């Protein structure tokens, strides 16, 4: 049962949930620019670096499979507060990290927190989002995580590069921000009436309304292709900066990641000016072309063209991902949002985790450039699938529109 809220309550919940989502993802990205530092100090391998991304994504997938619908029964606020607590625990692990296993444990807990945020907190945002403009909910849900990841990556990179403090300082800052986020969530309204069934909801289940099944092939291919590249950048942004772009700067490593992620928020906003199908098709085609340019720039060690192509890829990814999310959310009822959003992120995180897991097993046999080429081939494949599926979706909608018009005249 959904509670009715007044406008002030809705804005309080919307702002608090959005800020919390940004901070959780910012905390999750703080270790990424430091991975090359951990590589040297903890004596890790490139396969170990890829496993840090795998540990994170496995945590996300487990969380989304088992706990995605818990907030439908316990309420949005309690689950959001638990999510913030888990994010704080992961920061504590990184403050005291002394081995590769602790590094993996910290990333795993961050994955659990991010997965919960992708269901409970994003549903809380959708519950409280203003009715106009209609696209704001999808844009905020899509854009907040990437903004947070960019903030966290730059924050840790700057602290490490300019020796503002120990590596633990960034995690201490995020613990404070997470505590403030908890205060904001506690002040917000509860949008779901607490009911029985939380235990049974833990049984793994993918919840996708039947009326949107025909939209899934295009959306899934876009989710998988774009997030696979995000996983590649999370695992290898610091290594790309060091090995292929000849820079040991953690700020450059953070910039590499941020150039992909931050523009996604702008791309999400831009997609609101297009039909969802147009945003998907234009976005995924442009994303593929950008990946080809990125591969050439890496091969030639051209930093500026590489960063420009990465920014354009981020814009394209934001447009394609948000267009795909809008295509699904527009046909979904409020009661189905938490399950649908968790399914979207489950698919997306799996798309990032599986390629990284394969890379972790094969990394010793291939160079970083060859690994990058493999990812570009993956994007080419999903681009082809998405464009064919989108054309089919268009014909389906046109046929449905004709049938609806015929029935209305009878």
TrEMBL record:
It is a multi-pass membrane protein. Residues 6-395 form the Major facilitator superfamily (MFS) profile domain. Its main location: membrane. It comes from the Archaea. The chain crosses the membrane at residues 12-29, 49-67, 79-98, 104-126, 138-159, 165-187, 214-236, 251-270, 282-298, 304-326, 338-359, 371-390. One of its GO terms (molecular function) is transmembrane transporter activity. InterPro entries: MFS (IPR011701), MFS_dom (IPR020846), MFS_Efflux_Transporters (IPR050189), MFS_trans_sf (IPR036259). It holds the Pfam family MFS_1. It is found in: Cell membrane. This is MFS transporter.
């Amino acid at each position: 049962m959904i509670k009715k809220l007044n406008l002030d309550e809705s804005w309080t919940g919307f702002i608090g949930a959005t800020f919390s989502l940004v901070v959780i993802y910012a905390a999750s990205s703080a270790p990424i620019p430091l991975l090359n530092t951990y590589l040297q100090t903890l004596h890790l391998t490139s396969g170990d670096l890829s496993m840090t991304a795998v540990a994170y994504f496995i945590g996300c997938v487990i969380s989304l499979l088992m706990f995605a619908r818990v907030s439908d029964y316990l309420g949005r606020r309690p689950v959001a507060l638990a999510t913030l607590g888990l994010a704080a625990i992961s920061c504590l692990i990184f403050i005291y990290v002394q081995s590769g296993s602790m590094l993996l444990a910290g990333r795993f807990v961050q994955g659990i927190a991010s997965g919960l945020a992708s269901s409970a907190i994003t549903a809380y945002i959708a519950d409280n989002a203003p009715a106009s403009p209609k696209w704001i909910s999808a844009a905020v849900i899509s854009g907040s995580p990437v903004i947070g990841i960019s903030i966290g990556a730059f924050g840790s990179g700057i602290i490490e590069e300019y020796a503002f403090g120990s590596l633990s300082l960034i995690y201490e800052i995020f613990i404070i921000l997470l505590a403030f986020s908890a205060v904001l969530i506690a002040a917000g309204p509860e949008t779901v009436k607490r009911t029985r069934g939380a235990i049974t909801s833990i049984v793994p289940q993918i919840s996708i309304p039947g009326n949107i099944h025909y939209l899934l092939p295009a959306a899934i291919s876009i989710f998988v292709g774009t997030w696979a590249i995000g996983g590649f950048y999370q695992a290898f942004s610091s290594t790309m900066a060091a090995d292929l772009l000849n820079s040991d700067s953690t700020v450059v490593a953070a910039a590499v990641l941020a150039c992909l992620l931050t523009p996604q928020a702008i791309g999400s906003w831009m997609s609101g000016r297009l039909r969802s199908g147009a945003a998907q098709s234009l976005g995924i085609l442009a994303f593929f072309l950008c990946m080809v340019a990125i591969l050439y720039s890496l091969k030639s060690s051209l930093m500026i063209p590489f960063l420009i192509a990465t920014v354009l890829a981020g814009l394209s990814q934001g447009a394609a991902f948000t267009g795909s999310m809008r295509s699904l959310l527009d046909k979904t009822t409020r009661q189905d949002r938490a399950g649908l959003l968790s399914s979207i992120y489950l698919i997306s995180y799996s798309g990032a985790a599986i390629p990284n897991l394969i890379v972790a097993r094969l990394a010793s046999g291939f160079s970083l450039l060859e690994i990058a080429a493999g990812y570009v081939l993956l994007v080419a494949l999903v681009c082809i699938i998405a464009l064919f599926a989108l054309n089919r979706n268009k014909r389906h909608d046109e046929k449905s529109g004709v049938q609806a018009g015929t029935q209305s005249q009878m």
